[in-house]
Amino acid sequence: MSIQTVFEKMFVNGEWVDTKQYTEVCNPETNEIIAYVPKATKEDAYQAIDSAMEGASISAQLPLHERVRILKNTTSYINNHFEQFVHTIVQESSKTIREARKEVKRCINTLTLCAEEAKRLEGETISFAQVEGHEERIGYKYRFPIGIVLAITPFNDPLNLVAHKMGPAIATGNAIIIKPSTLTPLSTLRLTEAFLKSGLPPHVVTVLTGDGAEICPPILEHNAISFISFTGGYKTGKKIFSAAGIKKTVMELGSNSPTIIFDDANISKAVHDTVQGAFSVAGQNCLSVQRIYVMSSIYQTFLNQFITETKNLKVGSKKLESTDMGPMITEKEAIRVESWIRDAVERGGSILYGGKREGAFLEPTVLTDVPSEAIITQEEVFGPVVLIESFETFSEAIEKANHTKYGLQAGVFTSNIQRALLAIKQLDVGAVMINDSSDVRIDSMPFGGVKHSGIGREGVRYSMEAMTEWKVVAFQTKE
């Protein structure tokens, strides 16, 4: 049965507006068009900047208690419309209904954290008298809003990743322009509605939908933009950085995260956690487990259990409670990953399970013996594929895990505390998860990586710090 297609509006200059041209939003499972969203133009982009300049002035004047009230009201609104948000995520993204529920809960938690942390973002006194000649001065420093935040978000967490940019921006008294993924803009529009109905002054937020290549360049280059928050791929991030010039920037650019399994690990737990970490959201997660290195003495045991558990995953309709994995975001993306699998096999790799594609659905796939020059070894696959290899020594495992241009997070399974501490020290990543896979994150932790995995850290408090600047104040007390 076909669904009713709706025409959405974007939010610009303090009001909901439409345009002459529209972009299709499709359900990746059925490829049905579920909505049309406005295709913004350069003129809309310039209007967005003008509106955001007005919004920045308004937001900076909002008392802290008012910002906290808006954030709390927004969390209440989302909670009261919980199933609507779940339905939106399921319709436009790759997420199953169970995964969508988790994301809505995380969004509520993220915005709650924003309200709490807004009250804790304090300054410090400065002891001017520590320097001779400054005995008669007293001073302090405090944080003030940076101005206008440009947020560019991906498709894989269409609600919570937007909340991670909107929430901190509003909590710190900034205005924000949001460019959501062309594939999943509806969750952003629903979140914007939630903020506006919760009392957010209209000009504080702008949502531009459509082609990023058309509308982002004039915004990136504009001097009024003070801060850029981008989550996406390295190549796009590099272009954004180049176009923006000298602007404060935080970027999370993905990874091909490793997990190491030592011979003293709890194998059953390691198998369960890495299967979930590899194939949740069809592997379309920056923390997804892409490379697993297993000590040779337990390699075959781990491999057999991993394949058995992978076979038990139920791939199918996102709407069914029993489904473990849905489709990829588009058939085009599934075809890309399929070609990477084929490249790995042509170079000598072996498919131990999966590898078959039907439309946007790609089976959870387990590969081994994949050479280091294969695309799927070097790049972020962003699909339901995992590479499993053996190792003999600790140093070999660390070397293999670090042999990548990325460095977001890593997982290590071991019961030896000395080994765990040494791995923490030697792994070249932004976070190490002991007795967990790489796919672990809570919304309050500093989140980000090294090398090509990004610049700076997200996470509620850390985003709020990045979206503010220090101002130093000194009083001369001598008459």
Automatic annotation (TrEMBL):
GO molecular function, one term: lactaldehyde dehydrogenase (NAD+) activity
Keyword Nucleotide-binding carried by entry: no
Pfam families: Aldedh (PF00171)
Keyword set, alphabetical order: Oxidoreductase
InterPro entries, per database record: Ald_DH/histidinol_DH, Ald_DH_C, Ald_DH_N, Aldehyde_DH_dom, ALDH-related_metabolic_enz
Family assignment from sequence similarity: Belongs to the aldehyde dehydrogenase family.
PANTHER family listed in its UniProt record: ALDEHYDE DEHYDROGENASE
Protein name, per record: Aldehyde dehydrogenase
Annotated source species: Halalkalibacter hemicellulosilyticusJCM 9152
